[in-house]
Automatic annotation (TrEMBL):
<dbReference type="InterPro" id="IPR000182">
    <property type="entry name" value="GNAT_dom"/>
</dbReference>
<feature type="domain" description="N-acetyltransferase">
    <location>
        <begin position="13"/>
        <end position="167"/>
    </location>
</feature>
<protein>
    <submittedName>
        <fullName>GNAT family N-acetyltransferase</fullName>
    </submittedName>
</protein>
<dbReference type="GO" id="GO:0016747">
    <property type="term" value="F:acyltransferase activity, transferring groups other than amino-acyl groups"/>
</dbReference>
<dbReference type="Pfam" id="PF00583">
    <property type="entry name" value="Acetyltransf_1"/>
</dbReference>
<dbReference type="InterPro" id="IPR016181">
    <property type="entry name" value="Acyl_CoA_acyltransferase"/>
</dbReference>
Length: 167
C-alpha cells in the first residue's frame, strides 16, 4: 500500500492540485477512462482543450492528481454547483481515473480524504457529490466504503451531437 509519509519507509503518495503542465497527461487519461468505462473514443484535441480549459479557468473547477515516485497515477476533477436549497457549494467529483496497476491500493481513498478535508475547511462548501455508471460495482462499493451514500436521483441528459468531443 502507498502511504502519505507515515514514517514507515514506504514510498510516499503525493496529492496536489494539478497545473497546466499536467494537461497532456490528464487529457490522455480522460481518454483512457472514456474508452474503459463507456467504449467511447474521445477526440484527443477536444480532450486536451477541455482539460486545459479547466486548468486555466478556476471558475470551471480544478483537477487533483496523485503522484507516486514522480508519476501521476490518479486524477479527478472537481466542479462546483451552487445549491440554493443549502446556500452553499457542492463539489462534484468527476473524471476519476486511477491507472490500472495502482487500483485497490488506497489511491482514491487518499484523494477523497484530501478533497473531504479541504471541502470541510471552506465555509461555503456544504457537501460532495459524484455520479457513477450503474454497472461499475467496484467504484460504487469504493464510494460506499468512503462513507458516501447513494442519492435518490436519476440523471438525465441531452447532449448535442455537434459538441460530443468523440466518436
Amino acid at each position: 500500500m502507498m502511504r502519505r509519509g507515515d514514517g514507515s519507509g514506504e514510498k510516499r503518495l503525493h496529492i496536489r492540485i494539478a497545473v497546466p503542465l499536467d494537461g497532456d497527461i490528464i487529457a490522455a487519461r480522460n481518454g483512457e477512462m472514456a474508452f474503459e468505462t463507456e467504449g467511447h473514443v474521445l477526440d484527443s484535441d477536444t480532450a486536451r482543450k477541455g482539460a486545459m480549459s479547466v486548468l486555466e479557468d478556476p471558475a470551471k473547477g480544478w483537477y487533483l492528481v496523485a503522484e507516486h515516485e514522480g508519476a501521476i497515477i490518479g486524477q479527478c476533477m472537481i466542479t462546483l454547483e451552487w445549491s440554493d436549497w443549502r446556500n452553499g457549494q457542492i463539489w462534484w467529483i468527476q473524471s476519476v481515473y486511477i491507472i490500472p496497476e495502482c487500483r485497490r491500493k488506497g489511491v482514491f481513498s487518499e484523494m477523497y480524504a484530501w478533497i473531504d478535508a479541504e471541502a470541510r475547511r471552506q465555509p461555503d462548501v456544504v457537501g460532495l457529490r459524484l455520479y457513477v455508471e450503474h454497472e461499475n460495482l467496484a467504484a460504487r462499493g469504493a464510494y460506499r466504503m468512503l462513507g458516501m451514500e447513494e442519492a435518490p436521483y436519476v440523471m438525465y441528459e441531452a447532449l448535442f451531437p455537434e459538441c460530443r468531443g468523440g466518436k
